[in-house]
Amino acid sequence: MTDNLSSRPTQPNKRIETLDILRGFAIFGIFMVNVEIMNCVFMNQDAFGAQWTGTVDKLAVRIKQLIFYNKFFPIFSLLFGIGISIQIRNIRSKGISPSFFYRRMFALFIFGVAHILFLWSGDVIHLYAVLGVLTFALVRLSSKRLFWLALLLLIFPFYNQLFEWLLSVTGYTPESYLSAYSATDIVDTIRGGSYIDGIKLRIQEYKSNVTVLFVFLMPIALAMFVLGLAIGKKDWLYEISSKVNQIKKSVLLIALVSNLYRVFFLFFLWDLDIWKDPFWREVFIYLMQICDTLMGLFYVWVIAYLCQYKRWINLFIPLKAVGKMALTNYLLQSFIGLIIFSSLGFEKYETFSPYQTLLIALIVFVFQIIISTLWLQYFKYGPMEWLWRCISYWKILPFKK
Predict the structure, then answer these.
(1) Reduced to 3 states, what is the DSSP secondary structure of residue 332?
(2) How confident is the model over 176-230, as pLDDT tens digits?
């Protein structure tokens, strides 16, 4: 591809500031949840968490449940969908070949696979790459149809049954892949095993978590991708202030209703007899997932609304640098987790309580704010963003400012 205007990437100074702030915010919330899983693998969470009965730890758990759990993955997914809409706009306006987008998603998929193998099994960006290609195929749909499709994907209640059918047809048994590891084996492997042992465990852990990935995370991600594409097609990104004010009453009402249900779910429902019924328990959990997603969207609205005001946007500015380097910071969090918890570093796996993991997330994110701000004083992009762009445009792009 020739080095002319049509083949140049979007320049950093043309980015939409609110989106970078939201990306930084999402990176923080995602690590607040991920660090807990890094501290104890998903399959052992209940047994490990039961030992922390102190007041401070109980408070930390409630904070995570009310503010963080299942709220930030939808935000990150929505922003990725919006990013796809921006890329499509650039492809059309600059005459770039669609191969640019497919190359971009292929590179992201490879990054995700490498993330699983070498850092942490809880990767989602390989899933984003696959869903990104699917979302790109929907670009011809009108904004109205995309909105309805996003709603349908979000509320469609039969993913569990569909996935269970696929498992029965294929004979795939996720629970079998970690059956060779006892809880003690996992601790010993992560704390004291070799790096190769860690890779082997991460592969098995990933294969055992496909139910979480494809039943819980994938439908939400795809719904948010489609919603982000619809928002981009409606050009709302360039009139954010007017749009957030137009939907103010509706958003506040939805947030009120969803939060009332979330409080009922977390503090009262588990003590009722109806919770013991398997059918109704599944219904209540499903409604909770929807409410958590709506809460994540409410966070997006709140930040977009506050960014209209100078005093608030100045407060959010530190998030901007992290958001500009979202991919780098996402992978950096996993690298830091590897150093903290595994035999490659401090061997602290399954030693931190809920409030301690909360503090770790805060400290790491402050570090990321500082390092991202310093990095962007000298470079145009984060290192992974630069590599991703070079692969996408299939040429070496300027790096230093």
Answers:
(1) helix
(2) 999 999 999 999 999 999 999 999 999 999 999 988 898 889 999 999 999 999 9
Distances (CA, A) of 70 to 22, 262, 283, 338: 16, 12, 17, 23
Q: How far apart are CA 254 and CA 373, in angstroms?
A: 36
DSSP class of residue 11? P
| C-beta of residue 103 within 8 angstroms of C-beta of residue 392 | yes
Structure tokens at 360: 């770790």
Residue among 52, 72, 75, 76 nearest 62 (CA): 52
Domain boundaries, given as residue ranges, for the chain: 5-251+309-393
Helix (H, G, I), strand (E, B) or coil at 137: coil
List, as one string, the DSSP characters of 61-119.
Answer: HHHIIIIITTTHHHHHHHHHHHHHHHHHHHHHHHT--THHHHHHHHHHHHHHHHHHHHT
Q: Cβ(285)–Cβ(159) under 8 Å? A: no
Helix (H, G, I), strand (E, B) or coil at 209: coil
Give the DSSP letter of residue 40.
Answer: S
